[in-house]
Amino acid sequence: MLVYLNGDWIPADSAHVSVFDRGFIFGDSVYEVIPVYGHRRLREAAHLARLKASMTAVGMDERLRPVHWPTVCARLAETLPSGDGTLYLQVTRGAAPRQHAFPANAPLTLFAYARPRVSEPTGSAACEVTAVLCDDIRWARCDIKTTSLIANVLLVQEALSRGADEALLVRDDRVNEGAVSNVFAMCGDRLRTAPRSHLILGGITRDVVLELAAGLGIAVEERAPSRTELSGAREVFITSSSREVAAVTHIDGRPVGDGGVQGPVFRRLHSAFQTFKEEVRMGRRM
Ligand code: PDD
Does the active-site annotation cover 145? Predict the structure, then answer.
């Protein structure tokens, strides 16, 4: 497998980064995950805009290692054998003697590779997950897509140790998002999801689902559900570039809504998302 590193295309085994890289030492680094269908990138422009926003938010100067990401992404997407997968892009503040302050003029480290999608999920269980509620122990800039993911790592591990797939994160009694996904809940006749703020990562899949919901005439309210509202929700689902749109069937071991089966709003949105993916694959939509 060829990976992109600082302007070169090299086999993954021989791609090396300095032990003094600030991504390694401080987690001083941001990233993106871009889904690919039929070699075409889903919402590439939005993903690259978010990468730029993350870099700006942490004061990374792109002139310290210029790159034309669309060219890199196109070449990576071409390498995917089935045409489907995800692209991973990472930018660190580069290698420099260890001190917290930004180094003067260290070139950024740029890394990217393509990961094939592990066979297209089939059957209804493929788009279902279970979840547990956890205190949101992350920092207050969750809108920055940084690789400093220790809190998310611990939260996912806690979910797994409690027999679930995803952790739904509660801060000030609001369920804002998941450890690796955004969260939607049908509360009464409205689809609720947290508004964009520094408390969530503004998911690109979330944006697509909001557009699809608008097209289907589903009433949406961008307000994070409380713990009580979530436990009374008729349907709950999550969205992300890797999981796409997945129904949450159980929370803390209790079935969601009507017996923990996929609800009608989820099924409509899931089906609309499959159509959207096909259109991306055909080059009719981005
Ligand atoms: N994570 N919120 C968090 C905390 C996430 O980590 C992610 C995705 C999302 C959904 O964003 P998007 O729809 O743009 O993928 C929300 C990626 C997939 C990851 O870290 O692998």
Answer: yes
Cα dihedral sign for 94, 96, 100, 103? negative
Q: Is the per-residue pLDDT at 121 higher than 60?
A: no
Residue of 93, 145, 192, 277 marked catalytic: 145
Distance between CA atoms of residues 115 and 237, nearest Å: 25
**Which ligand 1 atom is the nearest neighbour of the CA of 206?**
13
**Cα–Cα distance for residue pair 204/44, rounded to 1 Å:** 10
Give me ligand 1 centre to Cα 178, in Å. 9
239 lines ligand 1 (CB under 6 A): yes
CATH number of the structural domain 124-281: 3.20.10.10
Hey, what amino acid is at 159?
A
Query: How far, in Å, CA of 140 to CA of 137, rounded?
Result: 9
Q: Where are the domains of the chain?
A: 2-116, 124-281
Query: pLDDT by residue (tens digit) across 164-223?
Result: 999 999 999 999 999 999 999 999 999 999 999 999 999 999 999 999 999 999 999 999
Q: Is the CB of 210 under 6 A from ligand 1?
A: no
- β 8-11/128-135 pair status: unpaired
Q: What are phi and psi of 216, to 5 degrees?
A: -90, 0
CATH topology classification for 2-116: D-amino Acid Aminotransferase; Chain A, domain 1 (3.30.470)
| Per-residue pLDDT tens digits for 3-61 | 999 999 999 999 999 999 999 999 999 999 999 999 999 999 999 999 999 999 999 99
